[in-house]
Amino acid sequence: MRQRRVVIVVYPGAQTLDVSGPLEVFDTVNRLMAEGASAYGLQCVSPDAPSVATSAGLVVQADPLEAAEGEIDTLLVPGGPGVKEALTDTSFVTWIKRAAARSRRVASVCGGAFLLAEAGLLDGRRATTHWAFGEQMARRYPEVTVDPEPIYIRDGPYITSAGVSTGIDMALALVDDDLGAARALEVAKYLVLYFKRPGAQTQFSMVLDTQLTDREPIRGVQDWIQENLHRTLPVSELAQRASMSPRHFARVFGQTVGMTPGQYVRRLRIARARQLLEATDLSVRQIASRCGFTAIETFLRAFAAVVGLTPAQYRHHFQLRTHSGLTVESAWAERRSA
């Protein structure tokens, strides 16, 4: 078997799991193969070789950047608190750009996407990063189409992932590409991962969490909405709970949250529906009802407008299953979506 060369770029303050997660996936592939065989040749390189401290203080032994000359199969760039300083190192950013040119594919975890964007590698492409940094990345790199929802995105030879544990999902997907689904699932099982998440799996609920405000009474209304998504929730009722007139409430809510009450409620309804589609065997009609849609047609239109798939298509791709093939118990899903 041809050995694929994986080069992981480490810099001071890189997120430990951004480095170690993908590294463990590729190394596990090698350890599960027949003695003497290996699918991946693994190398860590750094401008601060030979010893580099990650954000958690773990010291990584790395080769100097020049040791990574030649053809690279997979170049992987992690994120972490140190990325801010790394972005100011023009020689380091230039090295990433040149190394990418001799790599079959280039991957990033979390804020590593900033380094790829700084090198101009993501111009005109879709990319993701950690949900907390999506807006910042979009402002800094307007030539990049930043989508903060998926856990990872492929665009040509570039694969960007959302952050931290999603680097493991991305690495498993790369193993799937290289060696097939059976090998990727074997690695996932060995690493005690319950399932291999597809890239379009969403950070959606996390994005909504960032729109929770500390301002009362709006925060109280947001919490109440979460608990009452099965109701119709007209603006007049929400305003009454905030002790405001409907017009004043809508204005204050929009200023505080960044969207109208109706838009916010709809996004929460769709987020809840996605969770139930992923983790229960409830019918689409039952899910629509539990999420506050009085007509199934309205639910289907709203879901397709936000997600780009029908509920049935979404469930087919993303329903979570145990190793026995059974769906996760509905009671667990109800707790998860509460």
Tell me, what's the shape? globular
Question: How many beta-strand runs?
Answer: 11
Fraction of residues in H or I helices: 40-55%
Rg, alpha carbons:
22 Å
Order of strands in the sheet with most strands = 5-2-1-6-7-11-10
Let me know the largest β-sheet: 7 strands, mixed
Q: State mean pLDDT (0 to 100 scale).
A: 86
The end-to-end distance, rounded to whole angstroms, is 48 Å
| Class by alpha and beta content | alpha/beta
What is the element string, with H for helices and E for strands?
Answer: EHEEEEEHHEHEHEEEHHHHHHHHHHH
With helices defined by DSSP (H or I, 4 residues minimum), what is the helix count? 16
| Low-confidence regions | 203-210, 321-338
As a percent range, the share of strand residues is 5-15%
List keywords for this structure.
single chain; 338 residues; alpha/beta; seven-stranded mixed beta sheet; 47% helix; disordered C terminus
Helix and strand arrangement:
Layout: E1 4-9, H1 16-31, E2 40-46, E3 51-53, E4 59-61, E5 63-64, E6 72-77, H2 83-86, H3 90-101, E7 103-109, H4 112-118, E8 126-127, H5 134-140, E9 145-146, E10 152-155, E11 158-161, H6 166-179, H7 181-190, H8 204-209, H9 218-227, H10 235-241, H11 246-257, H12 261-279, H13 284-290, H14 296-307, H15 311-318, H16 330-337
Parallel strand pairs: 1-2, 1-6, 2-5, 6-7, 7-11, 8-9
Antiparallel strand pairs: 3-4, 10-11
